[in-house]
């Protein structure tokens, strides 16, 4: 029997996710991969929900380690880069958007606060800054959910064929343009 730590459990759980998808991730399968008894996983995670939350946090690490905006950065460019980074990170994992959806960014609250402060300092009204980050985040998760669920089907007759990336970029531009119009009106 192998003894494992919390990080090894999460790492192996993410590898399992990439292989079999979110619906097939189970503590039984994970224990078998780790060569441990299933109850030993509960030493590190009381419930599967706790395990999934830790997996979501670890999966977001590439985005969570991106540099924070600095005074003097163009807020529009930063907003685009930040949202694109979030999308890329979700796409790194099979079912990455499903894993992330509904998770709580407990360890990212300070970074979110700093992003908000940056937008407000750039002239974005505080409420609008918060709503823009929320809207961009939810739009991104929804876009990636659709992209990861796509099995190569064609759009209904009459609708244009558009790549997932193009659709994402056009939607992101609409969010940014809406926010820029608020800033212009307030300024």
How does this structure look, described?
By secondary structure, the protein is mostly helical. The chain folds into 2 domains: 6-59, Arc Repressor Mutant, subunit A, CATH 1.10.10; 61-186, Tetracycline Repressor, domain 2. Helix content is 67%, strand content 0%. The protein has 10 helices and no strands. It has helices at 6-20, 27-34, 38-41, 48-59, 61-64, 75-91, 96-100, 109-121, 126-149, 164-186. It is flat and about 60 Å long. 24% of the residues are buried.
Summarize this, please?
The protein has ten helices and no strands. The chain is mostly helical.
Tell me what the CATH architecture of the largest domain is.
Orthogonal Bundle
- Assign the CATH topology of the largest domain: Tetracycline Repressor, domain 2
Kindly report the name of the CATH homologous superfamily of the largest domain.
Answer: Tetracycline Repressor, domain 2
CATH class of the largest domain: Mainly Alpha
β-sheet strand percentage: under 5%
Order of helices and strands: HHHHHHHHHH
Distance between the termini: 65 Å
If you average the pLDDT, what whole number results? 92
Structural class: mainly alpha
Runs in which pLDDT lies below 50 for 5 or more consecutive residues are none
Q: Major beta sheet, specifics?
A: none
Helix content: 55-70%
Total number of helices: 10
The overall number of domains is 2
- The radius of gyration over CA amounts to 19 Å
What's the total number of strands? 0
